[in-house]
Structures are given as structure tokens and as C-alpha cells.
Amino acid sequence: MHDHATAFAPGSIGNVGPGLDILGLAIAGAGDTVEIARMDGTAMVVDDAGHPDLPTDPTANTAAIAAAAVRSAVGSSIGMRLRITKGLPLSGGQGGSAASAVAGAVAANALLDAGLDSAALLACALEGEAAVAGRHLDNLAPSLLGGLVLVRSVSPVDVVRLPLPPLQVILVHPDQRLRTRDARAALPASVPREVALQQAANIAAMVAGACLGDLELLSRGIDDRIAEPVRASLLPGFAAARRAALDAGALGSSISGAGPTAFALARLDDDASRIASAMVAAYLEAGLMAHATITGIDDEGARRR
Amino acid sequence: MHDHATAFAPGSIGNVGPGLDILGLAIAGAGDTVEIARMDGTAMVVDDAGHPDLPTDPTANTAAIAAAAVRSAVGSSIGMRLRITKGLPLSGGQGGSAASAVAGAVAANALLDAGLDSAALLACALEGEAAVAGRHLDNLAPSLLGGLVLVRSVSPVDVVRLPLPPLQVILVHPDQRLRTRDARAALPASVPREVALQQAANIAAMVAGACLGDLELLSRGIDDRIAEPVRASLLPGFAAARRAALDAGALGSSISGAGPTAFALARLDDDASRIASAMVAAYLEAGLMAHATITGIDDEGARRR
Asked: Residue B59, by phi and psi: left (phi above 0), alpha (psi -120 to 50) or beta?
């Protein structure tokens, strides 16, 4: 048991193209940090939620819910005082709520010397994520484990870190809003069998491409037939930005999570600036300001600070 | 150009669990052999279809259709005389029609020194397969390439041979009939989104398990939520046989192609006889005679003889 513990968790791309709810990719750079101090009593207090729009009520704060779940998983009832530093935006599809939940779980695990394994930590972080974004692991798992992660099952937790050659990641943030709730409501309740099978084949191609280091195969798999078609209609400019990314040489491009952030993947020797510029220009042409970030994959996942 | 050419192509398991239309596995042992002799004129003649129930009409025979497609692909019009030796049963879900088509295409390619690549050969074999079993590559591709094959796309042909550790394959043939047409008609036209995503996650787990040599992951992925539930109701005894295979230690078990053959996969050090006996006993208990074959994976695929 320690007096303090601090953990950082990176942002992530959910879905990664066709992998709706089942593929996620950890992104290097920005992330959320949660610092937990032990305090007398049994209360859970959020001193700083990291942003004025985020709740300090510990039963509504993703990091605090995840930390409380860890505490409860090990039968502890010590008091905890949290300070959250948000490096990720509150919305936009960069896995901010998941990063806070993961950092909360990892920090609590460290504070308590609890030694929970990845599956147990994910189950705890899922309680936090579920409070704001639904019961999905496709942002939580990469934020915890780093890299590209396959979510085979949420209950029981069954996630697999996949090998993946180094890639450049381009994130483009258009000046538009799409609530996760609306993006999810747009999803079809059922899909034609042929679409389901093509989607599965594309996900399988991405997974095989990643495992075998075959980037052309990975590229051919980045083709979402279920979520992207309906969400693209809610995201003016996206279809043109995606087209521009591919024309500029990207391996693939799609919506990050529920959007509105768009992403593109590129080889290390591709001209990522050109891809980013082309995507931003496509949004501008659609009447939307946008800015781009060029980064890479976070291979490490959540870590103590 | 040669006077004679002979090719052998192995049988295969289509679907391989959740991989409806997109995963196939080549099976060691039985296969079909096609011998083609050059003859004067431009006719295509089937001297021996290999079984009295198979057509000698070259426009209805899968091997002859595939051979004619190769001939046409290279702009030739030489006469061909075919003799087919059926090592595989005519029906039952062991990829017999696909093996004949592949062997016909490979033999014609050799006879003509045509040098067609795998994708071109598959496109030719597909013409034969489509005449009797639909436009699917999940038997053709493993029969041609060997091993476990992912079919990412039929048109254009995009198939990927996946690495796979050596496994034992148990095939169990119950004394029942299920026409491929009826088995396909039972498939739902659409599937709930959650089922589609779980199916995709399971296929992805199989692919990752194969590529990474993680047999436990492969095992967890062998769980078909789309075809098996509806086909199992048409195949008395199957559900019990599958359960018996898993209880006896199999990595996984499902219907081979459209059935009625059932299959189980097992590690090299598993007791395959015990798995086979348990499956046969389950069919007997359901009132059906059944017999089993214990074999392995055909890693080589179609080859000249």
C-alpha cells in the first residue's frame, strides 16, 4: 500500500475502420493522467476532474468509478482523493473517457499494490466507461495495453494485443459536433448477411495484415460497411477527407470511434504531412475548419508516472 | 504445351466454424485427380467423370468448366480430353466439387504451360464451382493453396494463406443428407448487429490465433453464431456430437461447409481417437450411424501428379 500513485493512459482510436466495438489502436502523444492520494476514512473524492465540464461527483466520474471498482475488487475501503489531468479532449472520438478510466484503475491498482491483471483492470475500467460511453472495450483495451487490440469478448473480458509494424497516424479534427449517443443511434439494428460477412472478412484481413506485417493486406481490410456509411452522412466533409487521404497515399482512413475526428494510417516512409493537408483541405472545401495531428502508435499503453 | 497433364487437389472444410464463406482449411488425405490429354480439334470431352452421378457434359462438369476457363483465359482453343478420379464423396461438405474444379484448372494450366497465378486459377475454378455450389471461394482457395485460407473478397479474388500450427482434424460423417441448397436457404437474410459483430470478433480471434500460433485463442474463436445455429436444427445429432468433441478435449468443432459432415480440430498431443469415438457415439445415441476419419491439414494444396 502506498500514499500516492499516478498513472497515465494514452488516447485511442476505436473501431479502426471496420472493427466496430472490436478493434482499437492506442495513439502516441496526448493522454490522461490520474493521481490518487490515500486519505483517512472511506470516502472517494475528486479534487480536480481536469475540466470544468467533467463531474467531481465520484459516482459520475469515470476515473473515480474505475478506481472505486479496483478498491472494491480487492476488498479494500480506504479513502482516495483523485486529481485528474485531461490531456485528451472531452469528446471527439479520441478515447478520452476510456483513458481516464484506465488511468484511474491503474493508479488505484498501484496505490493498493493490488496486482490485478489486465482483464481485471479492464473490467474495473469498464465500469467507469460504461457510465458515460457504453459497455465497450475498444478504447479501454488499447489504452491499457498499447498498440492494436482485438476485443473478442466483453463479458468475459477477452482481449488480444496484436503485433503491428510501426505506422504513422494522422488525426484530423473538423470543427463539428457529433454526440456519441447520436452516432450510436445511427447504427442499423440488423445488417444484411452479405454485409456482415464482408465486414468480418475485412476485419480478418486487418488482423492478418497486422499479425503478418503485410501492410497492403491491412490496407485492403480498412473498409467499413456498417458504421461508416451511416455516420458519414452525419459528418459533412468526412467522405471527401477520407477520399483525399487515400488519394494522398494513406493505407486507410475512417472515423475515429464515433467521430467526428477522422484518422488515416500511413507507412513510415509515406508523406504524412501531405495526407494531413489533403484531409484538412477537403474539410475546408466542405466549409469546415479542421486541424490535424501527425503522430504514431503508443506501444506501451497505460503506465505509472 | 504438353500432351498430358495431371493434377491432384485435396478436400477441404468450408466455413471452419464462424468463417461462413470466408475461411477454409485444406484436409490431408483424400482428394480429386484430373488428367487432361491434348487432342486434335477444339472439343472438350469428359471421358470419365469419376462417378456415375457426375455429368460428362463438359458444360456441366466442374473440372471441365474450370479447364475450359483456363484455356479461354490464355486464348487457346486446343481440344482436351479429361479423366477425373474422385477421391472425395459427391456431397457431404468435404469440398469435392471444389477439388475437382481446382484440379481441372491446375491440370489445364500445366498442359498449356499457361503460368496463371493463384488468383487467376481461382477465378477459373470458380466458374466450375459456381455451376454446382455457388460463387464461394472457401473450399476452392484452400484446395488450391493448402492450409488455412482467408477469403477477403471473391470479386476481385483476394485470398490469403494464413500460417497455422500443425493440428489433427477429425471428420465425422453421419448417415444423413442435407442438400447444400437447403443448408444455404436456411441462412438468415439479415443478422442482428450484435451477432454480426460477435461473429466478426470470433473470426478475427481465429485468424489471430492461427497467425500467432495461439491455439487457445483459435479455440475461443471457433464459435459460429450465424450458420451453425440454423443448420444444427437441420442436422439431428450434430449439437450433441459437437458437445462431445469439446468435452473430449477438441479445440473446436462445427459443421464442415454446408454439412452434414462434422469436424473437430485438436492439438497434436490430444487424443483424436477419443474425440472421434465420442462424436460417433453421440450420433449413434441420436439414432444415426456415423463413421470418423482422423487426419491432418494439407499444407501443400493442389499439385501436379
From this structure: alpha
Whether CATH 3.30.565.10 fits A4-162: no
| B94 CA: distance to closest CA in chain A (Å) | 21
Provide the 10 A C-beta neighbour count for residue B239.
Answer: 16
Cell numbers placing B245: 468433441
Mean pLDDT of chain A: 96
Q: What ipTM was reported for this prediction? A: 0.94
Chain B residue numbers with beta carbons less than 8 Å from the beta carbon of A152 are: 201-202, 204-205, 217, 220-221
pTM for this predicted structure: 0.95
**Domain coordinates of chain B in residue numbers?**
4-162, 168-295
Q: Which of B202, B205, B204, B210 is nearest to B166 (CA)?
A: B210
Pick the CATH number of B168-295 from 2.40.160.40, 3.30.70.890, 3.50.50.60, 3.40.50.300: 3.30.70.890
Instruction: Give the C-alpha separation, A63 to A302, whole Å.
Output: 13
| Inter-chain CB proximity B204 and A201 less than 8 Å | no
Q: What is the mean pLDDT of residues A111-140?
A: 95
The strand pair at A168-174 and A262-266 is best described as antiparallel
Among B158, B197, B204, select the one facing A220 at the smallest CB separation.
B158
State the nearest Cα–Cα gap between A3 and chain B, in angstroms: 39
